[in-house]
């Protein structure tokens, strides 16, 4: 009887190990799946100067590193980005990764090389993320510029009908929001703020703003009934994921494409946001 009970426990243990491995395999499969294109229609005034139907694609947290985001996977995603025919593409930081279990690190130039094939009539804009600073932000800026990507570091640019402010990374204390807002005040156009972390939203004035961010990965692992187990935000789930409204501000936070810490996802599929601006009489 004792040997039977022991055998039963061993089989139970093996069964639990098998289920655990299946779950890990499923989470890895989700992590390497093709990004979902999420869509948002933002209503703006027709006196903004923005053409009705103008499209902006938000991409964040590429985290190029093995095993889940080698450059050849990014090249495939670039084709998916171009297929959206966005007027402008926005990157909200974290182009590289230093995961604990990375199987391969890529030099910065190799990591971002696939971005050279991006096409967008109004250009490609980016800000830095915490992982970019931990690696080498200056090198990242240099390589991105070689790919014709415009970097906004605590500054603003008037691009077509848009007044775009790009803030450097809050998490590594490189953000200078007052400088960015001052630069935006000197320009006209529909206001957009790009930030790696959405946490700056709480510091922004309550006026019509479109805020585009990443960093949270929508939790990366989000449990049923419980939600994200960690959002890397001091506000918890307040700015964790998706399309949100706070007063007059509109916030969109992407789940990102790659992963951090572990190459696993659950309940937070890789995604990009295709934002269509719809004009109407105020």
Report on this structure.
The protein has 282 residues and is an alpha/beta fold. Helix content is 26%, strand content 25%. It is built from six helices and 14 strands. The strands form three sheets. It has a six-stranded mixed beta sheet. Strands 6-7-8-9-13-12 form a six-stranded mixed beta sheet, covered by helices on one side. A two-stranded antiparallel sheet has the order 10-11. Strand 12 and strand 13 form a beta hairpin. The radius of gyration is 21 Å and the shape is globular. The N and C termini lie far apart (80 Å). 42% of the residues are buried. One of its GO terms (molecular function) is hydrolase activity.
Give the topology.
Blueprint: H1 2-31, E1 36-45, E2 54-59, H2 71-82, E3 88-91, H3 108-112, E4 124-126, H4 130-135, H5 137-146, E5 149-151, E6 155-159, E7 162-166, H6 177-185, E8 190-194, E9 209-213, E10 222-223, E11 227-228, E12 242-246, E13 249-253, E14 271-280
Parallel strand pairs: 1-14, 2-3, 3-4, 4-5, 7-8, 8-9, 9-13
Antiparallel strand pairs: 2-14, 6-7, 10-11, 12-13
Keywords: Membrane, Transmembrane, Transmembrane helix
InterPro entries: Calcineurin-like_PHP (IPR004843), Metallo-depent_PP-like (IPR029052), Metallophosphoesterase_sf (IPR051158)
Transmembrane segments: 12-31
